[in-house]
Amino acid sequence: MGRNKGYMGSVTIGGAELRDIEEASLMRRITYVSHQSYLFKGAVRDNLLMGRPDASDDELWSTLRQVKLADFLKSEAGLDTMLSERGENLSGGQRQRLALARALLHDSPVYIFDEATSNIDVESENDIMAQIHALAGRKTVLLISHRLANVTASDEIYVLERGNIVQHGTHEALLKQGGTYAALWSAQQALEHYGEGAAK
User: Fold this and answer.
1) Percentage of the chain surpassing pLDDT 90?
2) How far is CA 7 from CA 77, 87, 145, 160, in A?
3) What is the largest CA-CA distance in the chain?
4) Are strands 16-17 and 12-13 parallel, antiparallel or unpaired?
5) Torsions phi, psi of 186, nearest 5?
6) Alpha carbon distance 90, 110 (integer Å)
7) In whole angstroms, how far apart are CA 9 and each of 6, 44, 132?
8) Mean pLDDT score across all residues of the chain
9) Which residues pair with 169 in a beta bridge?
10) Dihedral through CA 165, CA 172, CA 134, CA 88, nearest 10?
């Protein structure tokens, strides 16, 4: 997103060095979704229109259906449903679904999802990940996640350790290599399936 201008080495987008690209240009071309996407106090419609100011109500509803938030909002006040500061009157999963809807409306060539499914319910996580994977079929998607189950379908996985890339490849290739990724994968799988054998 161009926030850290004093980096070492080279980061290019479309052949242009990141530090040389104007912020307004980056904002048009890159959409960033974090684990705490900011929702503004006001109507759902106004929050969504920040993603695309010229979107029609039909387009807003279509995107809300896509992220499975339409039924809930129809039971409230629709697009006029009021949000408190940071959207705190919604659940964590609902906030992230709304942030994803706004991101989809922005329709940029590059998307960055930074721990976008942490601290939300499993159903919301699965729905959001499905949308991210669908988006990756037509956009450039950078997915940052500590939960490796979310990255297994990625074209290329980069493993960071103490700020350095220590491995990269597909999920299958990294498991065969052993090392950091395989160790993390095994540890997470053991935690996620803990007690299943005893339950049977």
Assistant:
1) 80
2) 46, 34, 22, 17
3) 58
4) antiparallel
5) -60, -45
6) 27
7) 10, 41, 29
8) 92
9) 157
10) -60
pLDDT at 193 over 90: no
Displacement of CA 33 from its chain's centroid (Å): 5
Task: Spell out a b/e string for 15-33, using b for 16 or more CB atoms within 10 Å of the CB, else e.
Answer: eeeeeebeeeebeeebbbb
How many CB atoms are closer than 10 A to CB 174? 23
- Give the distance, in angstroms, between the CA of residue 82 and the centroid of all CA atoms in the same chain: 24
- CA dihedral (170, 105, 116, 64) positive or negative: negative
CB 118 within 8 A of CB 146: yes
Question: Which pairs count as long-range contacts for 191-196, CB under 8 Å and 24+ apart, including other chains?
Answer: 192/149
The pLDDT tens digits for 74-99 are 999 999 999 998 889 999 999 999 99
Q: Over 50: is that where the pLDDT of 200 sits?
A: no
Question: What number of residues does the chain have?
Answer: 200
pLDDT score at 160: 95
Measure the CA–CA gap between 30 and 93, rounded to whole angstroms: 23
Q: For residue 183, which amino acid is it?
A: A
Tokens 């106090």 sit on residue? 41
Q: Which residue has the tokens 């530090």?
A: 19
pLDDT at 2: 84
